[in-house]
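Hello,

I think I submitted the L-MYO-inositol-1-phosphate job twice by accident. Can you confirm which output corresponds to this input? Input:
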Amino acid sequence: MQGSANLNLMIKAARKAGRSLVKDFREVENLQVSSKGPGDFVTRADREAERIIKQELMTGRPTYGWLGEETGETKGADPTRRWIVDPLDGTTNFLHGLPHWAVSIGLEHKGEIVSGVIFDAAKDEIYWAEKGTGAWLNESRLRVSGRRVMSDAVFATGIPFAGRGALPATLQDLARLMPACAGLRRWGAAALDLAYVAAGRFDGYWERGIQPWDMAAGIILVREAGGFVSGIREGDDPVQHGSIIAGNSALFEDFRKVIRGE
Ligand code: LIP
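Support: Only one job matched these inputs. Its output is below.
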């Protein structure tokens, strides 16, 4: 696989963590029927995956900063570069034995996401992108969809649960968008939602109240596949403000107007 030394390091780390998670996922399926459930086991699997990734990346680039879902933020000697990592995006899917989850690794340079790797280990699909070199699924080049009409488009989102996130605003989004499109999907993993926009499988995605590690790698994938990404509010940076909208180039403005209620 061609790419920079950083990208190859990211792919190696994602694959190593993915192999560990695939083994754990088989055990989770067996634990579904246990009275205690697989909760603690999944927590351990999540933390082990982040340990593997952190060991690989910080050994290879010891001066970079770190932001991981499980271990938080560590400032690096190089203040311009930071790894942004979700070792297991789609945790609830994993917990319930649903094979739709991913390892997500982003590299930020001076506040801009410049490289991303998303590894769907259950389906053996690895998505990757570096600024200026396109977006890829395994060895195939990715392009966003070509749909130009909202009524033909299928969008993905995340719907808040258990009192988390922005439920009233999301319900308003749904009320505006559902009559205007061909369908919505809520598949429970933001990184894969963004990867599917890059792959042209979804025409767009939006979500409120998610974390930098959910979206970092997916942002560069969508942009390198010819799509657009922004915050939901005018001028917001998605990673800084925790809300995101992404779409193909033809639909992005119309899609964003619907979500913004314009
Ligand atoms: C998940 C996101 C998803 C969101 C969930 C959760 P996690 O990340 O990928 O889009 O709707 O609430 O935040 O927790 O599985 O890493």
